[in-house]
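Weekly modeling sync, notes
Attendees: AB, CL, MP (scribe)

Item 1: holo prediction request
CL wants a bound-state model with zinc ion before deciding which constructs to order. AB pointed out that an apo prediction alone won't tell us much about the pocket. Agreed to run with the ligand included and paste results into these notes for async review.

Input as submitted:
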Amino acid sequence: MLPYKAVDEAEAALNRTLTVAETLWLNYSTNKSDYNLYCHNIIFLYIVYTLIPLPLVVVELLGVGNIARYKIQPKVKLSFAQIMSCYNTVIKMFFFVVGPFQLISYPAFKIIGIRTGLSIPSGWEILIQLGIYLIIEDYTNYWLHRALHSKWGYEKIHKVHHEYSAPISFAAPYSHWAEIVILGIPSFLGPAMVPGHIVTFWLWMVLRHVEAIETHCGYDFPWTPTKYIPFYGGAEYHDYHHYVGGQSQSNFASIFTYCDYIYGTDKGYRYQKKLLSKSKVESSNNDQQHGLKFD
Ligand SMILES: [Zn+2]
Ligand SMILES: [Zn+2]
């Protein structure tokens, strides 16, 4: 909690004028305890998980526009009841596992030293820290996810997440409770190693959830901005991991593709991609020979 109750009090103590961001932060956080600020994550989780997938789910259910052409596994169609069943299961898991875990992990948050004071991070500080968190998360998640594909790990824990062989956005956090705890470690490791301001921590948690939802959306849109991020895996990349299922020893990484490339766990995926692009070229050549048009 901030030691100042008002802007003039803070400016007098610091002997300088507060920036706009600092004034906003002071007005918002001055009467809130650090515990209260930390628990904001639970609210953000519910909001992000409910709202971000919603437009795509509605568009898919209503069959609006030409969206089906971008579906990665077009043969798999889920009903409204099946989608809601997934959503309800995850919400229950948030309530009984993620929420309590957040509440009891507060001492760790204090030990890490994430600050809540007036030294608001600059845009650059936020960007650099988020970049570091992404790399740490990706690398750690790769190995933990790979371990979950061992015989024991898969049968006892990870099988639940793979119930969706064609993922949907709401299935991003659909997992065994133990997997939520295990794969929560990479998400906390970055802030633990490079602690910043709580605003950066909130942004990181939101970014991580949005990224997981996008990766599981089941659609490969050519205009997705993430296509411009170097080595970014995306929906099509992770979809292949779900498509292959329990036997999958391919595409373990959660965000980028370089770990799978370095450790040779993307060979099956790259082979399939090569076959697919070859068959597309052949079918295009045949169509041209027979004078066919595409539109
Ligand atoms: Zn897996
Ligand atoms: Zn997945």
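Recorded for review: The chain has one domain: 32-264.
Action items: CL to compare against the apo run; MP to circulate these notes.
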